[in-house]
């Protein structure tokens, strides 16, 4: 997976990308709009009260709208 930017593909297609990373069970690099970058495994994408959230193995859940981009992580360990 190359770097996928939410602004380039739109939120619906971006959620599809996130759901695919859940199925692959591999770490991904996540870039938040605020600038934070972390590597973790996606566990689920859920909707609560009309807001979509990305659920990670170790990082706190993040509203999908706050994620700028994701890409495959070459790092084997989840941080």
TrEMBL record:
Q: Which domain of life is it from?
A: Bacteria
Which species is this UniProt entry from?
A: Hyalangium minutum
Name of the molecule in the record? Uncharacterized protein
């Amino acid at each position: 997976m190359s770097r996928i930017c939410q602004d380039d593909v739109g939120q619906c297609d971006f959620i599809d990308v996130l759901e695919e990373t859940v199925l692959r069970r591999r770490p991904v690099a996540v870039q938040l709009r605020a600038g934070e970058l972390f590597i973790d495994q996606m566990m689920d994408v859920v909707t609560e009260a009309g807001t979509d959230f990305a659920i990670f193995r170790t990082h706190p859940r993040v509203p999908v709208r706050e994620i700028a981009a994701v890409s495959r992580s070459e790092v084997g360990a989840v941080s």
